[in-house]
Amino acid sequence: MDAKVALSMQLPGAWGVCAGGGGLSSASMLSSRAKKKKKEELLMPAMRFSVARRKWSGGRRSVFLVDVSCSYNEYQAPTLKSEKSCTSFDESVALKTKTQDIEPYLRGRCIYLVGMMGSGKTTVGKVLAQVLGYSFCDSDALVEESVDGASVAEIFNLYGECFFRDKETEALRELSLRNRFVVSTGGGAVIRPINWKYMHKGISVWLDVPLEALAQRIAAVGTNSRPLLHEETGDEYTKALRRLSSLFEERSEAYENATVKVSFENIAAKLGHKDVLGLTPATIAIEALEQIENFLEHEDSEARMEA
C-alpha cells in the first residue's frame, strides 16, 4: 500500500462525527455559504451531474437542473482537537489485500453506507473510496448544494423534513445511475422504500453502532447540526440518547434491508476492546470489505450454480 492510502485520518476520537451549522439568521446563512465555498475550493471534483432544484418565484415553484460534484481527494470532516487516528502499516496492508480480493467481483458497483447519525459513514466512506479508487459522495452535501448551500438544519427549519426527504431521494436516484461511488447517506434515508430501490443497484453497508457510543460522540460536538435532536430537553448526552433510541426503534427494521451489516460491537469483541470507541476508521473499513467479500462470494457461488 502506498503512502496515499496510509494517510492520517483525522476525526473525533476514533470514528468521526461530522459537525455543521444551524440557525436561520442572515449571518448564519452567510457563514454556511462561506464554509461551503471554502469546501468547494478544497475539493478536486471527480464527477459532475445534475440534481433538480426547486425555486420559488411569485408564489409559484419552478424546477431546473444544477450541476453538483463529488470527490474524496482533499476535504476532511471537522475534528475534535487533540484526537487523531492514523492508518497503521498493518491496516494499510489489510485494506489493500481486501480491495484486491473483491475488485473483480465488485464490477464498479456503488457502495452505499447507511446507519444512524454520527455512526462514521462519512469518515469510513472516505477510507473505502480511497482504497477502492472510487469517488466519495455525501448525499446530505448534494441536498445542501441543491438548496443554495443551506445546511441540513436550515433546510429542515425553512422547508420541513418532507422537502428534505424528497431532495434526498432525488440525489440517490441520480447516484444510482453512476458507477464507482462510495455514498454516505443520511441517517433517515432508509425510511423510504424507493431509496432502497436505488441503493440496491449497488451494495449497501449498515454501520451498526451502540446508541450509547453514538450519543457520546454527538454530545461531544453538540446537537446544533442535528435537526431531529432539537426538540429534546436536558444535557447534550441525555438529549442525544433519548432521541437516538426513538429514531432507532423507528428505523431498525429498515436498516436490516442493507446488503451487509458491520457491527461495531463484534469488531471490538474480535479485537479484545472493551468498547467501540477505540476502533479506527481503517479497522471499520476492513470489516466492511470483509463483509462485502462474503456477500460477493455468496453471490458468485449462486450465479455459478444457476449457470
Automatic annotation (TrEMBL):
Do the record's keywords include Metal-binding? Answer: yes
Coiled-coil residue windows:
none
The pathway where this protein functions is: Metabolic intermediate biosynthesis; chorismate biosynthesis; chorismate from D-erythrose 4-phosphate and phosphoenolpyruvate: step 5/7
MF terms from GO for this chain are: ATP binding; metal ion binding; shikimate kinase activity
Q: For this protein, what is the EC number?
A: 2.7.1.71
What this protein catalyses is:
shikimate + ATP = 3-phosphoshikimate + ADP + H(+)
Biological-process GO terms, alphabetical: amino acid biosynthetic process; aromatic amino acid family biosynthetic process; shikimate metabolic process
SUPFAM superfamilies in UniProt: P-loop containing nucleoside triphosphate hydrolases (SSF52540)
Where in or outside the cell is it found? Plastid, Chloroplast
* Highest taxon of source: Eukaryota
Q: Which InterPro entries match?
A: P-loop_NTPase, Shikimate/glucono_kinase, Shikimate_kinase/TSH1, Shikimate_kinase_CS
What's one Pfam family the UniProt record gives for this protein?
SKI
* Cofactor(s) the record lists: Mg(2+)
Alphabetical GO CC annotations of the entry are: chloroplast; cytosol
**Keywords of this entry:** Amino-acid biosynthesis, Aromatic amino acid biosynthesis, ATP-binding, Chloroplast, Kinase, Magnesium, Metal-binding, Nucleotide-binding, Plastid, Transferase, Transit peptide
Q: What's its job? A: Catalyzes the specific phosphorylation of the 3-hydroxyl group of shikimic acid using ATP as a cosubstrate.
Which family would the database say this protein is a member of? Belongs to the shikimate kinase family.
Q: This protein is called what?
A: shikimate kinase
